[in-house]
Amino acid sequence: MTSAAKPRASKSGARSRKRPPAERLHESLFAELARVAELSAVERRLRDFGFRCIAGTDEVGRGCLAGPVVAACVILEDDPTLFGVNDSKLVDHDDRLSVCRLILRRARAVSIGIVEASTIDRINILRASKHAMLQCVDDLSIRPDVLLLDAVTLETLEMPQIPLIAGDRRCISIAAASIVAKVYRDSLMDAYHECYPVYGFGHHRGYATEEHQAALRVYGPSPIHRHSFVGVDEPRKLF
User: For the chain, which domains are there?
Assistant: First the structure.
């Protein structure tokens, strides 16, 4: 009685398992080049229509219970090859720092806009976010031909604007702005952590984590909390 023949290993499978490190590195490099090229498609199309100075803007901190909302505006060089640029939520902390440094080195112009918690309470978070973006555009050293935004428009800004749904994942200029804004806001929240360590701002950056909400129940709100947000002014838990 003969045993069933064992399947022969695929030569192509064996080759793929034994690919040299240089080959794997090249494959990864080409994949990243393709991703960045796809992320730059909107800007290339706009340049085909004659736009030469294209800005992207985005904000971070909109859903936080504490701290400012921060926006950034970025004008990149034509056809930039910026490895690692992506929606800031998809890039981990250490990579965000290095990518942010790359953006600052390679961008034609970068600006920041900040609206503090007290103003957010007074005018609401949507208007505050737009105000931060308006600050960015006004503070740019170069006047853009067109502004790319993540799903909003700035009604008082007299400039061509293109709102893109999920723009921070579809457009390299908006993605770059999201990273710059995120890195800048995180540094602010680290500084606030030193001032108000009981809230853990250095860990959650002001978002409504269990740690943050527990601290609010014990200590009440700090001077940088947004009183207009649900959960900030709940009664303190006494021991």
Answer: 32-185 (3.30.420.10)
The string of DSSP codes covering 56-88 is EEEEE-TT-SBS-EEEEEEEPPSS---TT---G
Nearest partner of 133 among 120, 114, 118, judged by Cα: 114
- pLDDT score of 81: 78
Q: Which two tokens stand for residue 112?
A: 């920041």
Report residue 150 as tokens: 């993540």
Residue where the block lists tokens 């909390």: 225
β-sheet bridge partners, residue 110? 74
Q: Quote helix, strand, coil % in the chain, to nearest 5.
A: 50, 15, 35
Write the CB contacts of 154 (distance below 8 Å, at least 6 apart in sequence). 130, 133, 134, 137, 147, 161
Q: CA 148, CA 55: separation in Å to the nearest integer?
A: 6
Tens digit of pLDDT for each residue in 164-221?
999 999 999 999 999 999 999 999 999 999 999 999 999 999 999 999 999 999 999 9
Distance CA 77, CA 173 (A): 10
The model's pTM is 0.87
Dihedral of the alpha carbons of 192, 195, 199, 203, in degrees to the nearest 10:
50
Q: How far apart, in whole angstroms, are the C-alpha atoms of residue 223 and residue 234?
A: 15
Question: Distance between CA 157 and CA 58 in Å, rounded?
Answer: 15
Tally Cβ neighbours within 10 Å of residue 77.
10
Report the distance separating Cα 24 and Cα 80, nearest Å.
24
Residues 6+ apart with CB under 8 A from 95: 84
